Amino acid sequence: xxVRLLAAALLTLALSTSAHAATPxxxxxxxxxxxxxxxxxxxxxxxxxxxxxxxxxxxxTSFRWDLAQPEEGGAFDHSVTDALVARASERHVRVLPIVIxxxxxxxxxxxxxxxxxxxxxxxAAYLTALIGRYGPDGTFWTEHPDLPRLPIRAWQIWxxxxxxxxxxxxxxVDRTQGYARLLRVAYDAVKAADSGAQVVLAGLTNxxxxxxxxxxxxxxxxxxxxxxxxxFTRKPRNVLRLVRRFRRVMRNHGDGRKPLWATEIGLPASExxxxxxxxxxxxxxxxxRFLTKTYGLLRRTSGNRKAGAxxxxxxxxxxxxxxxxxxxxxxxxxxxxxxxxxxPALRAYRRMAGG
Length: 355
What we know:
- The protein is an alpha/beta fold.
- It has a single domain, classed as Glycosidases (TIM Barrel).
- The chain contains eleven helices and eleven strands.
- The strands form two sheets. It has an eight-stranded parallel beta sheet.
- Helix 2 (41-54) links the parallel strand 1 and strand 2 (58-64).
- The longest helix is centred in the N-terminal third of the chain and has 20 residues, at 2-21.
């Protein structure tokens, strides 16, 4: 009996070790957004240090064109993104930029912040400038020889463009066709500036497989290297179901071998706190359990081209824990007048990522 128990224990250990060893590089990610992005420098420095010790390998965040070039014809100001890239590289955390938000002079409706770019080539010019700054031969690395050199080699083109609040157009304007045009021009610009860079499709949420099928009909095949899903659902097994359905659409359009990244997953701990009847809500403990089970399932299936995702970005790293439901999704609670407060899900993330 003792021999059998010992053999079973060794087998369990071997399987566990094998699963962890097979986890793709940069699998463990998080999103960096909301109020924490404007926190004092010392707070942000500490947060990036915590990312690394927690096991975060890659951080997804917005690179905002409107902040970099507020005036038409003006030089690009990279000061905001310089600070972010410096913090991340110092902690050996790779950056996945969401290139988003056209300046008022460059968008279809000046008064709507998330109106799409009027001329895709102007958006592409910002992408080209970003690669010139942070790509393999980027001036940022030349100017900061003291930092670990982690050039950015993946660029996500916008966020959730099928939603009106992320791609604000008139009621009868086809968002799918508009995004497909932007993606085509962006893809060519990225490849011209860095042929080895990956173009990441915007993250798609809600009925994401149907949205992806619509984008293929609009002609996006061949204009991205990595697909992206935002799989928000209360049950971890349903995250896998969404990934499988999404991958089926990819296979049906000849993209079965392309990587898929879950650029947002999460469950907000807003139950009993937010004024909402949204069924996604849970408690602090429920959020931690969801994180553990979801990352476990995604990690075990990460090598399966029919059902797997090779990166998973938790939404989000820090939030204020007051307001709408996703204000309660952070691994930290951040209040501008206090220090970030770790939530139970942070411990769960650390256990999964081995930080």
